[in-house]
Design goal:
A hairpin with a 2-residue loop joins strand 1 and strand 2. Helix 3 packs across helix 7, helix 3 packs across helix 8 and helix 8 crosses helix 9. A two-stranded antiparallel ribbon has the order 1-2. The chain contains 10 helices and 2 strands; from the N terminus they run αββααααααααα. The protein has one domain. The chain is mostly helical.
Length: 255
Amino acid sequence: MKKRKKPENEKRQVLDGYKKIGNTFVPPMVHRVGPLDSISWSNQTLPELIWWDVLIDRTSHRFAAKVAEEIGKHFKVREKRDCWWAFINDYTRLGTEEMHDLKEHMRRANVLTHFIESLVDFLNLYPECPISRFLDQRPTGIVDIGYLQRFENRMKDLDDKRSRSGVLVQALAVYMGFVLGKLVVKQGLALADFPEVEHYPTMERSKQVGASICATVNMVAGTTLPKYSEDAWTQYFWRRSLDLHPLDFSHLENL
């Protein structure tokens, strides 16, 4: 029995939004954002987003969202680069004048001073962090032991990207995508109810939104961040972390 040939208009509906590259049809999300590479949350994405948790810990979710909004508003009218400005590595792209303009925008928005004060202890742990460019002077590198312990405890919680802390940090990256106009979501999809993340993970809809946020951040990180071996900030972060808290193998001596 002969198979019925599909009408041309039916084919077009099935492939609607796909982009033809050679003989291959690329899904719409992929050709708009770029090819997706495998990326580790714990090894790379978390260190790239850790400054948001530092900010939340020292201030509030509301203030961190305000900072994300102001940074997004600043860059929305100034650049078309494939960058969401949510990751620490993003700030290695800015020249001296561009960095000055960003700081002036944040100063006019009355967020710069509180923002810097909230990051000082973290930047003293990691003085080579690209975010230190927001400071007028180089970090002292003086380690506050109490803060170091607090930071390490929060890192343990964030290691689970679906924890409340992990999802709320990732939500700020997604929020920046909305502000920049890089992320547009159709009505009915979980991300269209983005504000529900505030209730994560107590409500069923908030869990769906949280899962969509995690998937979106994984996609963005995989398409915009450098490969792990080429990510200078991440490599420095783990080396410095080991310097701050060397591994103790003494318990193995009597084995």
